[in-house]
Design brief:
The protein is of the alpha/beta class. It is 41% helix and 14% strand. The chain has a single domain, classed as Nucleotidyltransferase, domain 5 (2-Layer Sandwich), CATH 3.30.420.10.
Length: 147
């Protein structure tokens, strides 16, 4: 897996620009982050490093110890330096502008569903200029006779 970039409550692959996961909860604990990263490591392999902001859920001692045991280096951006985390800041800005600022969520379950739908659209259909106007993780198209 290339470098996951964690910002706020989203995890983005810096190389492919794919949003790997969104953590949607009223409160995110270090165990929530470990559980999500564990799932990603199983599915995509263990990265050399992870870049994140200095939020308490990412700098927690438990996470740093767990990542060290996994052999993953941590790269923390400087406080007040969002430009050091440009990919995730851009993604979070789009998520905020296109969904979060326009939607009123009545329940946490509704928020999870709508944010996941937006994430899938972003990954599978939305063209990205940095990727020659292709989506980061296009949906596979089944061709009759080739399956």
């Amino acid at each position: 897996m290339s470098c996951p970039n964690i910002g706020g409550r989203t995890i983005l692959d810096e190389f492919t620009r794919e949003c790997l996961a969104t953590l949607v909860s009223r409160r995110i604990t270090s165990q929530d982050v470990i559980d999500q990263l564990f799932q990603l490591f199983v599915l995509r392999g263990i990265p050399e490093h992870i870049r994140s902001d200095n939020g308490p859920e990412f700098t927690a001692r438990e996470i740093r110890k767990w990542l060290a045991r996994m052999g993953v280096k941590t790269l923390f951006i400087e406080r007040g330096s969002p430009w050091e985390n440009g990919y995730i800041e851009s993604f979070n800005g789009k998520l905020r502008d296109e969904l979060l600022d326009r939607e009123v969520f009545n329940t946490l379950a509704e928020a999870r569903v709508l944010i996941e739908q937006w994430r899938r659209e972003y990954n599978q259909f939305r063209p990205h200029s940095a990727l020659r106007y292709r989506p980061p993780a296009p949906e596979a198209i089944l061709v009759p006779g080739l399956t």
